[in-house]
UniProtKB/TrEMBL annotation, chains A, B:
Reactions listed under catalytic activity: 5-amino-1-(5-phospho-beta-D-ribosyl)imidazole + hydrogencarbonate + ATP = 5-carboxyamino-1-(5-phospho-D-ribosyl)imidazole + ADP + phosphate + 2 H(+)
Recorded GO CC terms: cytosol
Protein name: N5-carboxyaminoimidazole ribonucleotide synthase
UniProt entry keywords in alphabetical sequence: ATP-binding, Ligase, Nucleotide-binding, Purine biosynthesis
Pfam families recorded: ATP-grasp, PurK_C, RS_preATP-grasp-like
């Protein structure tokens, strides 16, 4: 596919959560329709999409019918089963491409690939059993963190190890899942860069945002980040390096630790990212439209930041703050229309905007 | 209804064109769902709505089923048949209310009502036949413009009369529709004010925009308008006067002529308005979200303008300029996803943004 998708084309989105929802809204601005594929009933993205398929990722015929009805397929999360991707790709191009998924689906593959690119990561080791964990802990010291190689998000699938004698219990907690041990990095801040690469190879990056977490879940992202000018340049160059190495098309999020020794890559996400939500109220073209433009083969848009923004997630019953936040003129609300409120569930976010 | 609609509620929208589409997108940001009622197949708003009813405004059962499934009904155009509104209102509140529709559906009623409020309009006269037209032309002079009292938009249902001997032909062109004769007003500019009134009576107005037309269709709206400071205040006060007199809830557009003798009201539209599209890229809360906030009983949002914007409509095959406009970093694109391109049809618009 080389020609840009014309208005009226249909984008298939794997996953119907809030990221799919905001991608669908961005696509509508460009005159593009969206078709959501999502196993769960009544997905948030379905409320703003032209069509929704409710089926599992193991439902071959549903995947194929979906792929036949759309012009390009993208995704809002990286843990899509390989077999599902194979089914789709036989009928319809997937963007960003498979290499980005292969690399980012597995923490060990990802860190190995990043260091191969000459980028710094936290120390890490493959863990297959107690002896390999014990050896790695001896090497790396404590504290360290044992993580499943796959399917982790929002702090799930992670166990902190503070003393070597906790090794066996930690391994047990992961229930035999393939694992990786990561050393702790003393950092002064965590930042992320949301960057995009067009089908023509053009690269653009939004200003880095500074993140805070609680209970393993992103709480806030603030732009501008507290960073020396050099840090901004370095962060953007790292993101561009990754995008080019993957021959990537779309938006990608890179989480970085700021340390006295420079920037260390924490992880990458081959998709729009929670820490890029501030762009909705800080840029003419936000991360969602930038992603749609890229995968549709359109030129990238203008992501220059025109305001200072602090994005705050509304998690669980924080959605009840809506009435108060709606009254605050500095707050731009973005709610996800989720049917049920659950602890730890991202229900919406608010962008607090300050004009410079 | 006094309590604000909680997230998860459903807004019914009469009309599935681009205004309904952009209202639905704005509603999604607030966690609200939309249900579109539209006689035409595949309406642009249906692509971003949770549900669509395809039925005519004379289909009582469909109107009633629609009204039962939504929490509030609003509309994207003012020419909704009264009987349809009656059917709906028996089951579900309509916002903005009926008085705004009654006044704005009929040019004669509207102008009479506006002058009753102490506002200036162009000279006008009710026309029922040739003698009344001849008499009015004698009174008002030429040029003058004969318009149908109802169902006119984008220059349709209007005939310009340059000489008294054109009266009979002009009347014939309107095919016996009830009519009004309007005198020409020598104006230096046409501006419009998009203003909102909340369920609590709070009023807010966006900065006035300056409009240009071609062939009776809005071409561009520019903010800031070329107006003395006094003109801005006057325009906003006129809009507030109208909103309060109608006990209005929602967004309303007021078109005004700028004349050496002050501002003259051209017409009002009880809905979001094409000349307010610039707010999408010039304000944190745009006219669409402002309308949704108002009709949902939420507090009005912050419509302070933070950029200079020129909105340009893409009409007919101007949609083919998309590729070029997508490359221009100053341009924010808003396409409507309409299936067919027709001459005179609004296919999208572009907001050219200049940071002050």
């Amino acid at each position: 596919m080389t020609a840009p998708l014309p208005p009226g084309s249909t984008i298939g989105i794997l996953g119907g959560g809030q990221l799919g929802r905001m991608l669908a809204v961005a696509a509508s601005r460009l005159g593009l329709r969206c078709h959501i594929f999502e196993p769960g009933a009544q997905p948030p993205a379905g409320d703003v999409a032209a069509a929704t398929t409710t089926a599992g990722y193991d439902d071959g015929p549903a995947l194929e019918a979906f792929a036949r009805q759309v012009d390009i397929v993208t995704y809002e999360f990286e843990n899509i089963p390989t077999a599902a991707l194979d089914r789709i790709e036989a009928l319809c191009p997937i963007r960003p491409g498979r290499e980005a998924l292969r690399v980012s689906q597995d923490r060990l593959t990802e860190k190995t690939w990043l260091t191969g690119l000459g980028l710094k990561t936290a120390p890490f080791a493959e863990i297959t059993d107690l002896p390999s964990l014990t050896a790695a802990l001896q090497d790396m010291g404590t504290p360290a963190i044992l993580k499943t190689r796959r399917f982790g998000y929002d702090g799930k699938g992670q166990v902190r190890i503070d003393r070597p004698d906790q090794a066996a219990a930690a391994l047990e907690e992961l229930q035999g899942a393939p694992a990786i041990l990561e050393g702790f990095v003393p950092f002064t801040a965590e930042i992320s860069v949301i960057a995009a690469r067009g089908a023509d190879g053009q690269v653009a990056a939004f200003d880095p945002g500074e993140n805070t977490h609680r209970d393993g879940i992103l709480r806030t992202t603030k732009v501008p980040a507290t960073l020396p000018k050099r840090g901004v340049t370095d962060a953007v160059l790292i993101a561009a390096n990754i995008l080019n190495a993957l021959d990537y098309v779309g938006v990608l999020g890179v989480e970085l630790f700021v340390t006295p020794q420079g920037l260390i890559v924490n992880e990458i996400a081959p998709r729009v990212h929670n820490s890029g939500h501030w762009t909705q109220n800080g840029c003419t073209v936000d991360q969602f439209e930038q992603h749609i433009r890229a995968i549709a083969g359109w030129p990238l848009g203008d992501g220059t930041r025109f305001a200072d923004v602090t994005m705050e997630n509304l998690i669980g019953d924080e959605i009840d703050r809506t009435a108060e936040l709606a009254r605050d003129p500095a707050c731009a609300l973005h709610l996800y229309g989720k049917r049920d409120t659950k602890p730890g569930r991202k229900m919406g976010h608010v962008n607090r905007v300050a004009r410079p």
